[in-house]
Amino acid sequence: MNLIIRSLIFALALAAPAAAASFKTVVIDAGHGGRDNGGSYGKVYEKWLSLDTALRVEKKLKGKGFRTVMTRRSDQFISLSGRAKLGNRYANSIFISIHYNFTWKSNVSGLETFYCSPASKPLADAVQRGMLNRVKSVNRGVKYARYYVIRHSRNPAILVEGGFVSNSRERGRTKEGWYREAIADGIVDGVVSFKKTARGSW
């Protein structure tokens, strides 16, 4: 049974790039919102950082000819199931959930990207690489996780963590527009690279 499962996963991983290549829409999910502040320190709220970054990503992707859909455009609470359902309305799409990290260990910093399905890992790899090319930071890697919005996505889906609000140095950078702009550029670079790699060319 284990051999059969491993073979199936491998087959899905091989098929993923070809299937993903057809995407026309990028669903951009700004994490948290409304009564859900996300990670926070003082007056620095993850929900605002995520939304600002998401709006920058949207503008850049539109400039490159992608169709975009936002799960929220304001300080609005949306349930996890509502976010996933919205993403699943678009068959030929990818889903990117944008967050900023928090931990009680104040010395921890860096960027990381999460995926759940085999079809999503190439996208996660591309976006993680794109962000690190734009921002000098600790590479916390590409990791498997079962976060609700990526676990319930029918399309390639990732969750991006653009730095730690709980780390004083990184928190200072997240408050700066240039940093959020660079994170957005890295995400967009990753999307473009993923599309090109999957199709071979535009």
Rg from Cα: 16 Å
Tell me the overall shape: globular
Query: Structural class, judged by helices and strands?
Result: alpha/beta
Q: How much of the sequence is in beta strands?
A: 15-25%
- Main sheet makeup: 6 strands, mixed
Terminal CA distance: 40 Å
Mean pLDDT score = 91
- The number of helical segments is 7
Helix content: 40-55%
Q: List the secondary-structure elements in sequence, H or E.
A: HEEEHEHEEHEHEHH
**SS elements, strand count:** 8
Write up this protein.
The chain is α/β, with parallel strands linked by helices and 202 residues long. It has helices spanning 2-20, 46-63, 80-88, 121-134, 148-151, 168-174, 177-199; strands at residues 25-30, 40-41, 44-45, 67-70, 93-101, 111-115, 139-144, 157-164. A 6-stranded mixed beta sheet has the order 4-1-5-8-6-7, sandwiched between helices. A two-stranded antiparallel ribbon has the order 2-3. Helix 4 links the parallel strand 6 and strand 7 (139-144). The radius of gyration is 16 Å and the shape is globular. The termini are far apart. 45% of the residues are buried.
